[in-house]
Amino acid sequence: MLRVEGLRARYGRIEVLHGIDLSVTSGEIVTVIGANGAGKTTLLRCLSGVHPAAGGNISFRGEMLTSVPAWRRVGLGLAQSPEGRQIFTNLTVEENLRLGAYLFSDERVEKDIDDAFQMFPILKEKRNLVAGGLSGGQQQMLAIARALMARPSCLLLDEPSMGLAPIIVAQIFDVVKGLKALDVTVLLVEQNAYGALKIADRGYVMETGRITMDGPADALIADPRIREAYLGI
Amino acid sequence: MSELLQFLLSGVTVGAVYALVALGFTMIYNASDVVNFAQGEFVMLGGMITVFAHAAGAPLPLAALTAVVATAALGVAMNKLAIEPARGAPVVSLVIITIGASIFIRGAAQLIFGKQIHRFPAFSGEDPIRILGATILPQSLWVIGGAVVIFVGLWLFFTRTLLGRAVLATSNNRLAAQLVGINTPFVMTLSFAMSAGIGALAGVLVTPITLTAYDVGLAFALKGFAAAMLGGMGNPKGALAGGLIVGVLEAMTAGYLSSQYKDAAAFIIIFAVLFFRPQGLFGRQSTDRV
Lengths: 233, 290
What we know:
The complex is a heterodimer. By secondary structure, chain A is an alpha/beta fold. Chain A is built from 10 helices and 10 strands. In chain A, helix 3 (93-100) packs parallel to helix 6. Chain B has 11 helices and 2 strands.
């Protein structure tokens, strides 16, 4: 479904992605784990088109994305819940969700909003409140719900567990795992390696702009190098 | 009493124009964080193009429409040719680009339209209307009415339409706007077109009262800027309130002190705002939780 070949990216003159290869097949949950600064967020930014690729190819459902502008990639079915949530702080919760379905204006939008409220009941309670006043966990839920409003076939998730209480993290990982049942393929970027590998089918390990290991998630969890470097066991 | 009312009426008239200019500042600022100092030139072009289209034989409404559309097109061209190519440059550089654009437009206007003062007839006669001992020109009612229509129309656009929400969303968080599929370059273009069109309309409405020349834009820009600062940059409600306050203060200064100090009112407001309330009357610290 999503195939990345030799992807390079730079900030100014400094190259931060040195040729990334990865692929995601339809129906999978794939995770990219790695330390802070490994380039995981930049990878997702390139996939969504909000950061230009300096080289390499990205194809999504057989279509080359490299020259497709960011706003059009959403329409192709590739949505992202970005790092730091990036919700519209001065709009209400419901308006945030409505804008998530910006490309649509049919009756399904209302139904999708109801589904989002069912997925995260707390958002329904706060539907008419300004989103900037939500707690971190609620904002993360809103960011995921908003991305799902775009009816993606593939969802890019950037660090959904960042800065949240363990109980909220567990709840969010549960939702991510449940996306499989909704036919949404997931590429999950995480520093919380254990949590991510536990719900994923496959994983990639990223270090300073390169993929250094990859394999089935349970094999990675069992790998002594991963255990030492990322799981602290 | 009638004197005070007279000053108030002329203050509100000119304040409505400042409010429209401030609104133009606000729209571009929201879309791009840029303070567009060519905003005054849009006002000048609105009046000027109407003058020449009217002189060329077009009826006044058609001439006015031509002016608004042509100026909006110029706003789009300015965005495409001057602002968009510099994307990624610091905001200060972009602001300097707009100052350059304003000097360029003023120079071109001087060559094309000449240095003399121009005017065209008022829309519905020149006979003043008497209200409680004060008088108001019919054209002033056009100015105030035009401003009301624009503000109500924009309010509906921002609160009732998905495209309006998209503009708000882009100004709140450009990255997120792109990620939900909003065509942010188009939102920029739209903001420049609307902002230039609104500026031109202000010029069309006010020119029968104030007359126009190639260099009137600077004064409009400075006063509109003062109004936008006073109201809180980026806030349409603030633009309206700021415009009216600047206009009325200016009229009061001219009436009770001396018309020589009239222009000082706007500058004193800019200083006062910067010293005491940099976020403006309606500006507030954004609430963000991390």
